Amino acid sequence: MTDRKTKTAALSDLVPDTGLEQRRTVLRAAGSLAVASLSGGFIPIALAEENSSRPKAGHRLVLADEADKRVPLQVSDIPLNGKPVFAFPYDLDSKTAQDGSRLNKVALVKVDAASLSDDAKKFAVDGVLAFSSVCTHQGCDVTEFVAKEHALMCFCHFSKFDVLKSGAVAAGPAPRDLPYLPLKVEKNQLVVAGGFSSTPGVKKTG
Ligand code: FES
User: Fold this and answer.
1) How confident is the model over 79-102, as pLDDT tens digits?
2) 13-52 pLDDT per residue, tens
3) Residues with CB under 6 A from ligand 1
4) Spatial distance between the Cα atoms of 177 and 167, rounded to a whole number of angstroms
5) Statement: the pTM of the whole predicted model exceeds 0.85
6) Structural domain boundaries of the chain?
7) How many CB atoms sit inside 10 A of residue 34's CB?
């Protein structure tokens, strides 16, 4: 069943990621339509934005699929060369997970830190890297990590992104690299160190 949060997220994700101010303008214009379409009643646009702004420095990361258990993830929570761990940024002050947009979701992977390129070392912490989990081809979820190829993979059309090389396209039709989210560590917790390296999701051209 589609819940209220999902409906709100769907509205947000329809708006191109062109910056917060522009997104606000478009969202306000679309507000009445959105409200009219929601069977659950009125949802203020402010609420729609509260949990859908992009990740920023200082956010923690919490498991994407445990909405009732918001515990900041640590380096030790990410398995070496294992399956990706999916997470949303989390604002400690407002105690809000930024889970109102799937464009905020990241795939966390851990590799041997020594194998990282010099560029990748700059945004990794103890071998842990965070990438957008939305494929840059047609927006499917990037769900797998192929350890022997050190690549995140999208099953829709089999694009692969090399995590050792900052998410560079390694195979498939994806037109651009997978955006990464820089990390640091504080009190053993993974902390977002800045915004995405580029616009997450499908980027319109022309
Ligand atoms: S949507 Fe990911 S490869 Fe096509």
Assistant:
1) 999 999 999 999 999 999 999 999
2) 444 444 444 444 444 444 433 433 333 334 444 445 678 8
3) 135, 137-138, 140, 154, 156-157, 159, 172-174
4) 5
5) no
6) 1-50, 53-206
7) 19
Rounded Cα gap, residues 156 and 138, in angstroms: 9
What is the rounded distance in angstroms from the CA atom of residue 103 to the CA atom of residue 61?
14
Phi, psi for 199 (deg, rounded to 5): -65, 125
Nearest residue CA, atom 3 of ligand 1?
157
Write out the two tokens for 27: 């969202």
Amino acid in position 39 = S
Which of 3-12, 35-44, 92-101, 154-163 ranks highest by mean pLDDT?
A: 154-163
User: Are 105 and 87 contacting, i.e. CB atoms less than 8 angstroms apart?
Assistant: yes
| Residue 201 CA to ligand 1 centre (angstroms) | 10
CATH of 53-206, one of 3.30.565.10, 2.102.10.10, 3.30.360.10, 3.20.20.70: 2.102.10.10
The residue whose CA has the least distance to atom 4 of ligand 1 is 157
